[in-house]
């Protein structure tokens, strides 16, 4: 499945969240990672993040696409990071 | 179609990009908007943004889902903004 992870966390936790995210997904731009991932690895990513973020102050959203067949990715301006081999 | 818009732009253009984005989509968290939108309105949103961003320095990515039937949205922590009636 294809996942887009976006996060809005307090400054002191940004590096830690990014470091965890990059173990599983491709950094795309500020606060955004994406990529192909298995169910098991997504669960592991989520539990690592849960141990790191503040449930009251931080927000991490996963958009999970079982298939990218009905999806498309368009960009304006510069491609800052990688592209998680989005079809 | 359902669209997730993420942006990474220079500080002096953030407010303008957010203001334009909010005319078409729901603010979700820092640098992320989402929502149901027609093809025509997406084209209008993109042309407004093109007039505002720097093609060399800024980055705006649209993840476009023709259907949300094969997609899911999961969140860790707090829901900061709205939720664009993602199924």
UniProtKB/TrEMBL annotation, chains A, B:
Keyword Nuclease: yes
Pfam family, one: CRISPR_Cas2
Swiss-Prot/TrEMBL keywords: Antiviral defense, Endonuclease, Hydrolase, Magnesium, Metal-binding, Nuclease
Cofactor: Mg(2+)
EC number: 3.1.-.-
Binding site for Mg(2+): 8
Family per record: Belongs to the CRISPR-associated endoribonuclease Cas2 protein family.
Assembly: Homodimer, forms a heterotetramer with a Cas1 homodimer.
Listed PANTHER family: CRISPR-ASSOCIATED ENDORIBONUCLEASE CAS2 (PTHR34405)
Protein name (Swiss-Prot/TrEMBL): CRISPR-associated endoribonuclease Cas2
Protein source organism: Thermatribacter velox
Lineage per the UniProt record: Bacteria, Pseudomonadati, Atribacterota, Atribacteria, Atribacterales
């Amino acid at each position: 499945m294809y996942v887009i992870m976006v996060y809005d966390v307090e400054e002191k936790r940004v590096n830690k969240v990014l470091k965890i995210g990059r173990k599983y997904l491709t950094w795309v731009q500020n606060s955004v990672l994406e990529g192909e991932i298995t169910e098991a690895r997504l669960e592991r990513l989520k539990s690592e993040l849960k141990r790191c973020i503040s449930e009251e102050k931080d927000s991490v959203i996963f958009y999970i696409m079982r298939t990218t067949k009905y999806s498309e990715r368009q960009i304006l301006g510069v491609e800052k990071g990688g592209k998680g081999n989005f079809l």
